[in-house]
Specification:
Elements (H helix, E strand, L loop, with lengths): L3 H7 L1 E7 L3 H13 L5 E4 L15 E2 L4 H11 L1 H21 L12 E5 L9 H12 L5 E2 L2 H5 L8 E5 L3 E2 L2 H15 L2 E3 L3 E8 L2 E7 L4 E11 L5 H4 L9 E10 L10 E4 L4 E6 L2 E6 L5 H4 L8 H15 L8 E11 L6 E6 L2 E5 L5 H16 L2
Parallel strand pairs: 1-2, 1-11, 2-8, 4-13, 11-18
Antiparallel strand pairs: 3-7, 4-6, 5-6, 9-10, 10-11, 12-15, 12-16, 13-14, 14-15, 17-18
Helix pairs in contact: 2-7, 2-11, 3-4, 4-5, 4-11
Bound molecules: flavin-adenine dinucleotide (FAD).
Flavin-adenine dinucleotide (FAD) binds next to helix 2, strand 9, strand 12, strand 16 and helix 11.
Length: 377
């Protein structure tokens, strides 16, 4: 049985957010910004956030040329541009809210490389005109000169540079956001796995498995921001149809005089690499094994890691006689059926917030703002 002190001070909150990744923590900040007197609590199952947000590649990007063209063809120009606008605005919002914090942001620009001809290359001018009102610049520029400057193999036939992208330190970003939320008064509880969210006439009860005990927290509103793990808490809703997608990553040991700078997209966005300090971070290639990679497991596989290493040696850094890999890991992305961000009620006082679809650095800020709007004042 709980004491009245425990119940009122520790087990009640106006807003409970489940999941402390980029969406969850920024939602806490956005809600408090609109409702400064609200009691806001974040429940995170890990010792630190252990979903995609601290295991990603740290691209602050809005989509490469081939990705934007593919979205235009798939979703239509209006919907594709809407999503680029949300990414662009979200990125500006995130960067300005973190101003003055060390998040390792570097504005070296982004690039896409092609080993073969690609239909998107002939549409570069059309896409640039569509994106100009959003980015205010020529978003995609053909830059053959950068192929040798970055040290790539001559197999790279085309390089498209984008001045609007940057890279950041994903761990420092989430740590900065957690610290901003704590300073704003958000209660963050780690080691708190939510097992069930239940509505009754008096409100909503969040069942939490703590380290050694179970707790029930009474909440005014619950926001489920657990990304790939949403189906564990939400059934009978579109959100339950989310598809997990593992992304595997490797990071090399430091490479002397590394010529590469910035972020790089390859193979229609399935492969991505970037400079980090004097190392190369390389990830993706889940298109080599779609079914095997549709998992929330954080294992890595030799199939994907070997393919990434081959690309590293043969295409990205052929100038380097030996390259040792120092870190390998994987994280879980989640794709919504519509490929769009979703903020929706699943019960009267329960909202799901997800759908970054592999671009959470850019989209999480706007998803969080949307939740705060839906909650109102
Ligand atoms: C390998 C990889 C590379 C990526 N690269 C990039 C990139 O370069 N740029 C980019 O913009 N995006 C990238 N992404 C995507 C981006 O990381 C995600 O879109 C974003 O982090 C999603 O944030 P989120 O808060 O929705 O989810 P998550 O970060 O997954 O957060 C969900 C949180 O919920 C917690 N949780 C789960 N279940 C429970 C429960 N029952 N109770 C309590 N807590 C729970 C988890 O521990 C986790 O911390 C990448 C993703 C991966 C996996």
């Amino acid at each position: 049985m709980r004491s009245i002190w425990e119940s009122q001070a520790w087990l009640e909150s106006d807003v409970v957010i489940v999941g402390g990744g980029l969406v969850g923590i920024q939602t806490a900040l956005a809600v408090l910004h609109r409702q400064p007197r609200a009691r806001v609590m974040v429940l995170e199952r890990g010792f630190m956030p252990t979903g995609a947000s601290t295991r990603n590649a740290g691209f602050a990007c809005i989509g490469s040329l081939s990705e934007v063209v593919s979205d235009i063809d798939l979703l239509g120009a209006e919907a594709a541009l809407d999503i680029v606008r949300r990414r662009y605005d979200g990125l500006q919002g995130l960067l300005s809210s973190c101003q003055g914090r060390d998040i390792g942001y570097l504005h070296h620009g982004g690039n896409e490389i092609f080993l073969d001809e690609h239909p998107s290359l002939s549409r570069i001018e059309e896409v640039n005109e569509m994106l100009r009102p959003i980015t205010g610049t020529t978003t995609f520029q053909i830059r053959h000169d950068l192929v040798s400057a970055f040290g790539f193999s001559a197999r790279v036939r085309h390089l498209v540079h984008s001045p609007v992208e940057g890279t950041l330190h994903s761990g420092k970003l989430v740590r900065a956001l957690w610290s901003m939320a704590q300073q704003a008064g958000v209660q963050i509880r780690t080691g708190s796995t939510v097992s069930r969210v239940e509505s009754d006439p008096a409100g909503t009860i969040v069942h939490v498995q703590g380290v050694s005990q179970e707790y029930q927290i009474r909440a005014g509103t619950v926001i489920v921001a657990t990304n790939a793990w949403i189906p564990e808490l939400v059934q009978d809703h579109e959100a339950a149809k989310i598809t997990p997608a593992r992304g595997q990553i490797l990071v090399t040991e430091p490479i002397e005089s590394l010529p590469l700078k910035g972020s790089f997209h390859f193979d229609e966005g399935y492969v991505y690499f970037r400079s980090f300090e004097d190392r190369i971070l390389l990830g993706g290639a889940r298109n080599l094994a779609f079914e095997e990679e549709a998992t929330t497991s954080h294992d890595i596989t030799t199939r994907i890691q070997d393919a990434l290493e081959k690309l590293l040696r043969e295409v990205i850094a052929p100038y380097q006689p030996t390259i040792n890999v120092e870190y390998r890991w994987s994280g879980t992305m989640a794709f919504s059926p519509s490929k769009q961000p979703i903020v929706e009620h699943v019960q009267p006082n329960v909202i799901v917030a997800f759908g970054c679809n592999g671009m959470g650095v850019a989209l999480s800020h706007s998803i969080a703002q949307r939740v705060a709007e839906v909650l109102g004042n």
